[in-house]
Amino acid sequence: MLYKPFALVGLLLPSLGLADTFDTCSTSEITTCNCPTTPVKRFQSREFTFPEHLFPRTANSCSGDAPPCCVEKGPGPVQVSPSTSKTNLQCGSKFGDDQLDVTDGVVYKIEDCPASGPYSGKKCLHIAITAAATTTISDIHLQVDDDPITLNTKLGKWPFNSYCTLSPTECWVPVDAIIATFENPSVSSLCDTAVYVAVGISLSSKRCASGATCFNQGTTIGSGNWFMYFTLDLECPEICLRKCCCPA
Fold it and tell me: pLDDT class for 54, splitting at 50, 70, 90?
């Protein structure tokens, strides 16, 4: 069944931004949706008898009093699993913890790449780092891979360093650059995958004038250093891709 192009745009938006109108359900969809046979008053109690999986509790976007029915579902945009969306910034100097750790100091999120940057219009993995107050950050390093990270030397040549800045202390990595790391097999999306992220900074403070190294807290890379990688779980939760309106 054909549907209006402008309606499709609305379908991909959050529930509060749904399109104003959808196509009327076809004969088969009326049966699938179990469309009501009696009118539904617009301001009556929302205790619908309609199937919850077909009629999610969202704003009414059909004409008259008919609620919309979801007739096609599929994976939504890729996002970081809430369980791995942040980790501590673990700091150390030589073989001791220098007390510059920051709880939840590294935050990960998939969002639009900066409009003013070279990757405008794409999706990026945004990594935001919060260092302890009164510290001076002198360097930042990043590696992203589809396999656990084992390289703990030549941090200055890590291939993802170029996606990071010292001020603000953050990294914007295009999703397609992460997809490109997957080999044997390759992937076309990051849905339901795990990627391994090692992001670290070098800093100094009055308490640690000689400098300290801080990384996203996770699995240690090698020994005798503070280099770590963090396992980031990515997912594409199911969303409604197409809705239709029951006959009014």
Answer: low
Most trustworthy range by pLDDT among 5-9, 109-113, 221-225: 109-113
Nearest CA to 100 out of 231, 226, 230 is that of 226
105, pLDDT greater than 60: yes
Long-range contacts of 133-139 (CB under 8 A, 24+ apart): 134/205, 134/206, 135/100, 135/203, 135/204, 135/205, 136/203, 136/204, 136/205, 137/166, 137/167, 137/169, 137/201, 137/202, 137/203, 138/166, 138/202, 138/203, 138/204, 138/211, 139/166, 139/201, 139/202
- What are the respective helix, strand and coil percentages of the chain, to the nearest 5? 10, 35, 50
Each domain of the chain, given as residue ranges in start order, spans: 5-76+238-245, 79-235
